[in-house]
Amino acid sequence: MTATQDRPAAEIGKDRRRKEDQRLITGRTRWTDNITLPGMLHLAMVRSPFAHATITSIDVEAAKASPNVVAVLSGKDFGDELGVCINAWPITPDQKTPAHSPMPADRVAFAGEVVAVVVARSAAEARDAAELVDVEYEELPAVVGIKKALEDQVLAHPDLGTNKSALWVFDSSEAGTGGDVEAAIAEARTNGIVIEREYRQQRLIPAFMEPRSVVVDPTGEQITMWSATQIPHILRFALAATTGVPESKIRVIAPDVGGGFGGKLQTTPEEWIAWAVARRLSKPVKYTETRSESLLAAHHGRDQVQMLTLAADKDGKVTGFKVHLDADLGAYIAIVGGGVPVLGAFMFNAIYKFPSYRFECQTVLTNTTFTDAYRGAGRPEATYAVERLMDELAAEVGVDPLEIRERNWITHEEFPFTTVAGLEYDSGNYEAATAKAKESFGYDALRAEQKERRERGDRVQLGIGVSTFTEMCGLAPSRVLGSLDYGAGGWEHASVRMLATGKVEIVTGASAHGQGHETAFSQIVADRLGVPFEDVEVLHGDTQIAHKGLDTYGSRSLVVGGEALVRAVDKVIEKAKHLAAHLLEANADDLDYTAGRFSVRGTDQGVTIQELSTAAFAAHNYPEDMEPSLDADATYDPVNFNYPHGTHLCAMEVDTETGAVKMRKYTCCDDIGVIINPLIVAGQVHGGLVQGIAQALWEEAVHDEAGTLVSGSFVDYLLPTSADTISFDVVHTDEPSVCTTNTLGTKGVGEAGTIASTPAVVNAVVDAVRHLGVHDIQMPCTPERVWRAIHANDGDAPTPEAAMPHFEEGALNQDEGAGQ
Amino acid sequence: MIPVKFDYLAPTSVEEAISALGQHGDDAKILAGGQSLLPVLRMRLNAPEVVIDLGGISSLRGIRDDGDAIVIGAMTTHHDVRDDHLVKEHALLLSKAAAEVADSQIRHRGTFGGALAHADPAGDLGAPALALGAQFVIAGPGGTRTVEASDFFVDLFETAIGDDEILTEVRIPKHTGWGAHYEKFVRVAHQWPIVAVAATVKGSIDEARIGLTNMGSTPLRATASEQALAGASATEDGVRAAADLAAEGTNPPSDLNGAADYRQHLARVLTGRAVLKAAGV
Ligand SMILES: Cc1cc2nc3c(=O)[nH]c(=O)nc-3n(C[C@H](O)[C@H](O)[C@H](O)COP(=O)(O)OP(=O)(O)OC[C@H]3O[C@@H](n4cnc5c(N)ncnc54)[C@H](O)[C@@H]3O)c2cc1C
After folding, report:
1. Worst-scoring range by mean pLDDT, A178-182, A518-522, A789-793, A805-809?
2. B58-173: what fold?
3. What residues in A contact B2, CB-CB < 8 Å?
């Protein structure tokens, strides 16, 4: 469409160090908690120690009398101005959604829920006084764990009459995208293979580095909220929608934000409380949570029980896949709450040509911290289920796990391919990624070593795990979101501002919180516009500067926001060309645009885009039919998701005496289309891998029967450090499968490592001890669980059952008491 | 989180510290490296009115040779214990165990005396101190007394140190030339052990001393294994048979990291490994 440059890309593909890192790493920057306003007051929250209780009385007198306390407020002190916490994605029309007040006045539904707020002149004084607030509770029975919730004996919200919130179903025979799964299963029961498993996705805590923090300044006409959030634009909309303040009177700023992983894709009770207090007192206020509060009350992730039935013929060609999920929403349905498992609905068939598929998701309410998006959101759960099962199928058929995948996957000639879940995968090459990963991993040599160790009966056994994943990312085509009843669109907005001095400001609606947008987006603009990398400034995260946007999550920033940017840049070039033709007194058709300079073909006459920028500013001489500006905006709505994929191979050593596991090698070959900055990609992949590996091996949020979070500090909620990981072997295919639905050809990478790695690790652990009779080990694969699985049958490790390969009434694939 | 407000005292002598303790009694807390105390204060699990920092008392820092023992000042950091040549020569087990405490930052702050006074049953230094027969020098208003390791550890987070006393130094009888190994079993690095075994052996094997971490409310000796090993030859099978007795008389906790029976299993396996490594097999 436009005269974009034909010079070779100088920036795209370059390992640029991230320009934001110095300030982020040294902390000499604007984190929300660094913001101090004149007269600012500090908040401390009083939280319920009970998972379910009626609030009978709140005595605030002692707290009010504490030094420098300005106010102590509870739910009943507020009316409508407190607003409500919203669920933006009711997954079915009849979804049961409990009312979610930021600070309930009558009843608490999880331990950690805020019941009162103390306002004082310093954070320390607020904290001291919070301990003096005397709340009397009448404890109610609490329901904890999915299985318990499904029984509907104890109710998380008695007024709803049930814990079952919504049942969401997709069936390929009803959708016309495939056959009847029950028929396929029936056929396989007589003539083929049926594998039934129950897998548990344990509850996880996003555990971002910067705790959540919010500052609200009600001074003046417009109320400003700074928040450590991933979603300033959605936050502004939700504040307007629920607190009665016009959107135009609200400014939300997400300054530098220290990580989110989905955990800051939320509109939080604490933000709403800070907002209401600031307005009530007409004073700026700040609330920064402690790490303990963060682990307790910031939303948790995952938490599903998956009942899976895979049908295949005798050769291991899958004929049908039936999935039933029970997903724990926690006490309330958070902003995307029930939608997270539904995002997985389209991914259980993964890279395979399954002819029939059925997916059901039952969401349930419990008296625990509410759950929502966590890196991968829905897709890691799906990938885990299918990739674990493909290994089980391989074992059943007696072939290599890579072989079973090859028998089922979409071959590279078959793209674009419409899947049984109804998505159109535009491009991919699973063969190429697998071949490259296999070679780099040294697959055959490791298999030989595994065989040798087994034969020798070595104390330390070796296992190899495979995960050939794909995912849908780049959330999202707005029409698709609409068809799923999601509360917003999935477009993204960008502006390019050509400054008087020739520098360039670009404004993006994607709100980075550590991803490196400033660097990658500068690289894109530098190439496309032909200006130096250093001359590009990226602005984001302030609704007054980036007035339109849908923020950062779901691996969308580059593929959606980057494309919006490209389109805005192209508009700038188009305008500049018109101005150039005018100034050069040439015909626009005779202009070439190379390296940021328009030149008149066949002459040495020309003008650079930066000179044109100055000329447009001066506006002394410009065409009649043009406004004196080169600036341009674009809003881009993707037509499809994009589908990165990759082959991940993991070798794990298992000490059969202790159950300890140790990673030996990890290779991943991700095909993510065109790579803008390999260094940033490596960072995303490494970090993503560690988070996925951590689900497999270490992390688990555990509530006891009363609903108390047992893993409430990093002593019990185990986060790995660099000392726990190895150096990953990260490679990419030589000829990437370029994304066909965006100009840059890019695919998302922010979640890839997390989605792919969890099953690779568990597959490897199980593979190491499969010959000892083990089919499954519940996540996280703690040494104790591994040891019990190995010794389940030899009397060494009597309880509990570590693996339960088939469905039986009352038999869970989990330890007693582990969050159930 | 923010601790409850407290007063801060920084005495420069043991006498001054003891008199401050006497003055404030129950309301005071000793601060050594702060690596256990500060988390406790920040989580508001304890709220002393006065914190008495021993950091300014130089006589509490350092390691000296004292004839048949080496003496480690209470304020000597884990890092210094690990690297000290006297410790390496005469109490190698302590150097090995100190190397396994937490991470480098914490080892540069946390102290030998602080860790032992804290008496966390999952702490890494109690079991080796017990195995080596350490003697604890405790100063109070009435002067100084010495307590044997077997009497020092009383219960979970409880020692023989009185409210008005401080631990000043620890005497470690020389185990010159003994082989040593600290076998620590963790889920993630830089964490307290699920179980750990401290083993030091003379010759191969004339005598073995074995301490168990996190196998009860205090550090424990694996006495039955020690007896079985005395005079035994350091073969894999022999050592493992003796190690099978390691869990006798233990009473480990059950928590997210492992049930008691699993910990007892670990104690047996790890004892075998620790002794074999200590014996250089
Ligand atoms: C993240 C983290 C990980 C850790 N991991 C480990 C680990 O793997 N293994 C391990 O063993 N430890 C671990 N620790 C604890 C660490 O070893 C501490 O340094 C140690 O437990 C306490 O020593 P301190 O000098 O810091 O004492 P402090 O925290 O200052 O004091 C601890 C307690 O002892 C009392 N006290 C201190 N000195 C004296 C004295 N001279 N006389 C009387 N009372 C005294 C104090 O009043 C206080 O009650 C870890 C700590 C952290 C923060």
Report:
1. A805-809
2. 3.30.465
3. 123-124, 127
How many angstroms separate the CA atoms of A326 and A163, rounded?
12
Residue A555 backbone phi and psi in degrees, to 5: 50, 45
CB-based contact (8 Å) between A716 and chain B?
yes
How much is the pLDDT for A221? 87
* Ligand 1 centroid from CA B112, angstroms: 8
Q: How many residues does chain A have?
A: 820
Ligand 1: centre distance to CA A511 (Å):
41
A202 chain-B contacts, CB cut-off 8 A: none
Residues of B in contact with A294 (CB under 8 A): none
pLDDT by residue (tens digit) across A91-112?
999 999 999 999 999 999 999 9
Q: Which residue has the tokens 């005496």?
A: A657
Cα dihedral across residues B181, B185, B191, B193: positive or negative? negative
CATH 3.30.390.50 is held by the domain B179-278? yes
Q: Model-level pTM? A: 0.96
Q: How many CA atoms lie within 13 A of B169 on its CB side?
A: 19
Q: How many structural domains does chain A have?
A: 3
Q: Say which amino acid occupies A281.
A: L
Q: Note whether B45 contacts A: Cβ–Cβ < 8 A.
A: no
For strand B50-53 and strand B143-148, is the pairing parallel, antiparallel, or unpaired? unpaired
Q: Is the ipTM of this complex over 0.90?
A: yes
User: How many other C-beta atoms can be found within 10 angstroms of the C-beta atom of residue A23?
Assistant: 12
DSSP run (H or E) holding A230:
none
Instruction: Let me know whether A325 and A457 are in one domain.
Output: no
Helix (H) / strand (E) element for B151: namely helix B149-152
**Is A716 in Cβ contact with B258 (below 8 Å)?**
no
Interface contacts A/B by beta carbons within 8 Å: 63
- How far apart are alpha carbons A816 and A795 in whole angstroms? 19
Fold of B7-56: 3.30.43
The tokens for A519 are: 């660097």
What pLDDT score does A797 carry? 55
Any domain includes A411: no
Q: What is the pLDDT of residues A119-169, one digit of tens each?
A: 999 999 999 999 999 999 999 999 999 999 999 999 999 999 999 999 999
- Tokens, residue A359: 């997916």
Q: Name the pLDDT band for A2 (thresholds 50, 70, 90).
A: very low
Residue A431 and residue A344 share a domain: no
- Report the separation in Å between the CA atom of B33 and the middle of ligand 1, taken as the mean of its atom positions: 7
Does residue A69 sit in the same domain as residue A188? yes
Distance CA A394, CA A188 (A): 16
Residues A113 and A149 placed together within one structural domain of the fold: yes
Rounded distance between C-alpha atoms, residue A135 and residue A59, angstroms: 6
List of E strands, A264-386: 285-288, 301-312, 318-330, 357-365
**B10 with B55: CB under 8 angstroms?**
yes
Q: Which band of pLDDT confidence, cut at 50, 70 and 90, is reported for residue A811? A: very low
Closest atom, ligand 1, to C-alpha of B168: 41
Mark whether A7 and A107 lie in a shared domain. no
Give me the domain span that covers residue A246. Answer: 38-378+390-396
d(CA A190, CA A171): 23
List every span in chain B annotated with CATH 3.30.465.10. 58-173
| Count of alpha carbons within 13 angstroms of residue A57, beta-carbon side | 4
Q: What is the DSSP string of B190-245?
A: SS--SEEEEEEEETTTTEEEEEEESSSSS-EE-HHHHHHHTT----HHHHHHHHTT
Residue A23 contacts by C-beta under 8 Å, 6 or more apart in sequence?
A29, A256
Tell me the sheet residues that pair with A227.
Answer: A214
Q: What is the 3-state secondary structure (H, E, C) of A538-552?
A: EECCECCCCCCCCCC
State the CB neighbour count (10 A cutoff) for residue A635. 16
CB atoms within 10 A of CB B145: 13
